[in-house]
Design brief:
Blueprint: H1 3-38, H2 45-52, E1 57-66, H3 69-75, E2 81-101, E3 106-117, E4 129-133, H4 135-144, H5 149-162, E5 167-171, H6 172-175, E6 180-181, H7 183-186, H8 188-191, E7 200-201, E8 210-218, E9 230-233, H9 245-248, E10 268-273, E11 278-289, E12 296-302, H10 323-326, H11 338-345, H12 354-370, H13 376-379, E13 394-396, E14 406-409, H14 418-423, H15 431-434, E15 437-441, E16 446-459, E17 477-488, H16 491-539, H17 543-548
Antiparallel strand pairs: 1-2, 1-17, 2-3, 3-8, 4-5, 6-7, 8-9, 10-11, 11-12, 12-15, 13-14, 14-16, 15-16, 16-17
């Protein structure tokens, strides 16, 4: 064999080998490259996206208008609800005070949340009036359950003096961010000193342009699986709302802005949002194509046991409120002197409310002179000291909202016990509209779409029935609003991510395949070259010899399938 042929064959082998190595090793190399970009370091690509969140974020509110408020209060009629919404707010998220610690193993930050109303995406103006539950009144009655006799008398006199209805008409802006002045809200610290003073009530009151809390998360430098995992929140390594340690731990949960690259075997994710006061478990549902950028994503849904009670799902028994946190110790005593009450009131009472102070002072003096017998109707109010467990489908948030009877559920009581839909009318649960879900691009752990849908319900305590005006109020959970927190990638961002994931692999696969093909064809040429040469030599043999002695040509196979036999004369 000529030296040049040996060189060409060697080159061909090298080309095939390089191509095969590239085809086999490239996915592994790409995973390493992607992991290095996901790590939260100042020069990392994921860090810039995580810090600035260049994606649309919306918070949508759907309020429930009560159409038969008077009948509910007067005769205990079933609440008839009509959903009105959405009222859409664009959300800006900014991370302040970003500080890397522990050799870039962790990063701390404050997250500033700012909300801007978007009229174009909303169903109506914020001035629209809604008839809704008088939530401060319902909350006050629940707080009364744990008061000592003296404070219970004070609260009863106060509620009777105010004489509010159990339903109020307020504008959307008052019910959400602006709030509306409310005397019971002002005096809430009198019922529970742990409640901070605020003059107005609103479900999002004083939550605009405020920090969501101080987070410390893992950067993933040592272990990519821990990237963005919460290590501490407000300086604490675990929550303290719940009775069981298992329910207070973060367990490596993420805040939903970034996850680690997800192996196909990982069927659960953990999500922590501050307004839920707990970690949510998300379960893998399917692999599918996203509507954004044609990306392949994994879809996760909240676990079916998220809002199950402990009877239906025993592990949820640790979500009972932590008594050491909710207990109001100075209410354990049956007597509170006038000075203590005055000290609590002096910063709560304003000029227009001075008659309230006089009323409570007179009530206190009557109690001291005549004792609790004089107020027998007040002190007979039943006290529910035991934890109440309701049918599955709701979750008690009173532990992190100063014992207020606030319960969350899926929107329209989706997947809840049928009991809840029997207590109200007007709700129509629909998984396509009310189910929460999370779509994640698995190679990078990038959330492509998050739809977090939660309903707020307020429980009406049996204390209401001790007031003549409210004696017929039903003891049920009344939905007041449900919200939809939405994050989704832009088409531009999704397409860019799709190209970064598929582009390098596509190009190198094509190049590697070409190397294999060129090398293989070259080897094939040198292997069949001697056969071709031999065939050419045979065809140049004297044609006369072929005519006199017809035989099968060594390079022509057609004679092997010829059925005719040669004839000899």
């Amino acid at each position: 064999m000529k030296k040049s042929s040996i060189i060409w064959i060697s080159i061909a082998f090298v080309l095939v080998l390089m191509g095969m190595i590239s085809l086999i090793g490239l996915p592994i190399i790409l995973v390493k490259i992607i992991d290095s970009k996901v790590i939260l370091t100042p020069d990392g690509e994921s860090y810039r996206l995580w810090r600035d969140l260049p994606v649309p974020i919306y918070l949508k509110f759907y309020l429930f208008n009560v159409t038969n408020a008077q009948q509910i209060q007067s005769s205990g009629a079933k609440p008839e609800l009509k959903q009105i919404g959405p009222f859409v707010y664009r959300v800006n998220v900014r991370k302040d005070g970003v500080n890397f610690t522990d050799g870039y193993q962790s990063v701390t930050f404050n997250e500033l949340m700012t909300y801007h109303f978007d009229r174009q995406l909303s169903v109506d103006d914020l001035s629209l009036k809604i008839t809704t539950l008088n939530s401060p009144l319902a909350i006050a009655m629940t707080l009364m359950e744990d008061l000592n006799p003296m404070m219970k008398i004070m609260a009863t006199v106060l509620i009777r003096h105010i004489d509010d209805d159990f339903f109020v008409e307020k504008s959307v802006e008052e019910l959400l961010f602006d709030g509306y002045p409310d005397l019971l809200t002002k005096l809430a610290p009198l019922l529970n000193p742990k409640i901070p003073y605020q003059p107005s009530f609103g479900w999002m009151y004083k939550k605009n342009d405020t920090y969501d809390g101080l987070f410390k998360v893992n950067t993933g430098k040592s272990d990519i699986k821990k990237v963005n995992a919460i290590e501490t929140f407000n300086g604490q390594q675990e929550l303290d709302f719940w009775s069981g340690k298992e329910c207070n731990t973060f367990k490596g949960a993420k805040n939903g802005e970034l996850f680690n690259p997800i192996p196909s075997s990982d069927k659960t994710l953990l999500l922590f949002r501050t307004n839920f006061c707990r970690v949510l478990t998300l379960i893998w549902k399917s692999a599918q194509k996203s509507q954004y950028g044609d990306l392949s994503v994994y879809r996760y849904y909240p676990s079916d046991n998220t809002f199950a009670n402990s009877s239906d799902y025993p592990p949820n028994s640790c979500y009972k409120p932590n008594k050491t946190r909710t207990e109001v110790k100075d209410f354990d005593n049956n007597e509170l002197d006038l000075k203590t009450i005055i000290n609590r009131l002096e910063n709560l009472i304003v000029t227009n409310d001075s008659d309230i102070f006089t009323l409570l002072e007179d009530t206190y003096m009557d109690y001291k002179l005549n004792g609790s017998k004089y107020f027998k109707n007040f002190t007979d109010i039943d006290v529910h000291k035991k934890y109440r467990e309701f049918p599955s489908g709701i979750f008690d948030l009173s532990a992190c909202y100063f014992k207020a009877p606030v319960y969350i559920s899926n929107a329209h009581f989706l997947n809840a016990d049928p009991y809840y839909l029997q207590t109200v009318s007007g709700l129509k649960p629909d998984p396509s509209v009310h189910q929460s879900f999370l779509d994640i691009e698995p190679m990078t752990g990038t959330p492509i779409e998050l739809q977090l849908r939660v309903q707020i319900n307020v429980f009406i305590s049996s204390v209401a029935n001790y007031f003549i005006k409210y004696k017929n109020m039903p003891k049920i959970h009344i939905p007041v609003v449900w919200q939809e927190f939405t994050i989704h990638a832009t088409d531009e961002l999704a397409k860019d991510l799709h190209w970064k994931l598929t582009g390098p692999l596509l190009i190198t696969t094509i190049v590697s395949s070409l190397l294999v093909a060129i090398g293989s064809l070259t080897l094939l040429y040198f292997f069949i070259k001697p056969v071709i040469k031999r065939c050419r030599n045979l065809r140049s043999t004297d044609s006369l010899m072929i005519d006199e002695n017809p035989v099968v040509d060594n390079c022509d196979t057609s004679a092997l399938i010829d059925d005719s036999q040669p004839t000899y004369s």
